[in-house]
Write a structure and sequence with these properties.
- With 288 residues, the protein is α/β, with parallel strands linked by helices.
- It has one domain.
- It is built from nine helices and nine strands.
- The longest helix has 16 residues.
Length: 288
């Protein structure tokens, strides 16, 4: 057991429009080396509301849960999430409430109205807001800058263009985190609890890099996934089966197994550069 955790999970998230998402996957594993397993959704596909219900059900468990989304936005570079906007929140939890209040009524935890109302900060379709343009490729959080030496390529949360955009995922995730209402603490905004579940932000590409994956980090066959799972840094039993697997599920499976090992590393719980942004931007677990 590591820090009171005897189970580990990863949620591969999606900010796509609509109720049920093919891009959401959840996997979990127990301590030890048993193979990670997919958590089946209550319907054919997960909805964000389903994930919220699942999270609430895990709260009493000694589970470390990685969320593949950004729980906050850049703050340190400008001293504000939305510089120049009256009422811009001053910490991450206030940001979740701010996004929720300005998205209330949109179904499926969507954020289209919020994005439209804050358009100068975002790159949306062919429209690049003036405040986004001023930052070049978009503002970055401190943890995103610190992650670059690991071989990963974080994108600005204010970029809403292209397959690699993470903005809508992050904003829809903030609505879910607000609805979770503190039932599960989120590191590093809150401390590691003595008992119960804990949420952390993860990059699934860090898990793939730790497993020895070079070049692209997506694993699209069971064989490729198992080669990563049995790598020394992951030290997991392989999953059953052969043939294709979509990268959302393979990301969740590998990252759950990686969390089981990474949680043992005390340096990852005290990363350099985190203290100044702990309550505003937060930090990605796995970035030293």
């Amino acid at each position: 057991m590591t820090l009171g955790f005897d189970a580990f999970a990863c949620i591969d998230w999606s900010g796509a429009v609509g109720e049920r998402q093919s891009g959401i996957a959840i996997a979990e594993c127990a301590s030890g080396s048993t193979a990670p397993e997919l958590v089946m959704p209550p319907h054919a596909r997960w909805s964000r509301a389903d994930v919220l219900d699942w999270l609430i059900a895990q709260a009493p468990r000694g589970m470390l849960i990685g969320l593949d989304l950004s729980p906050s936005l850049p703050f340190a570079d400008e001293g504000a999430f939305f510089p120049g906007d009256a009422g811009s929140p001053t910490d991450a939890r206030a940001l979740w409430a701010y996004v929720e209040a300005r998205s209330a009524g949109e179904p499926h935890h969507a954020v289209s109205r919020f994005v439209a109302d804050h358009a100068p900060h975002f790159r949306i379709g062919r429209a690049t807001g003036a405040l986004f343009r001023r930052a070049g490729n978009g503002r970055m959080r401190a943890t995103e800058i610190a992650a670059r030496p690991l071989g990963v390529r974080p994108y600005s949360c204010f970029n809403l263009v292209g397959a690699s955009q993470v903005g809508r995922s992050s904003l829809t995730g903030m609505r879910v985190l607000h609805a979770l209402a503190g039932r599960i603490p989120f590191w590093p905004f809150e401390r590691v609890p003595a008992a119960g579940a804990l949420l952390v932000e993860v990059y699934t590409s860090i898990a793939a890099r730790r497993a020895g994956k070079t070049g692209g980090t997506k694993l699209r066959t069971i064989e490729a996934l198992n080669a990563a799972l049995v790598a020394p840094a992951i030290a997991s039993d392989p999953v059953a089966g052969t043939g294709p697997i979509d990268d959302h599920r393979s990301d969740a499976l590998l990252t759950a197994a990686w969390l089981r090992r990474a949680a043992d590393d005390p340096a990852l719980w005290s990363p350099r550069g985190m203290s100044a942004v702990r309550l505003t931007e937060g930090w990605t677990f796995g970035v030293p």
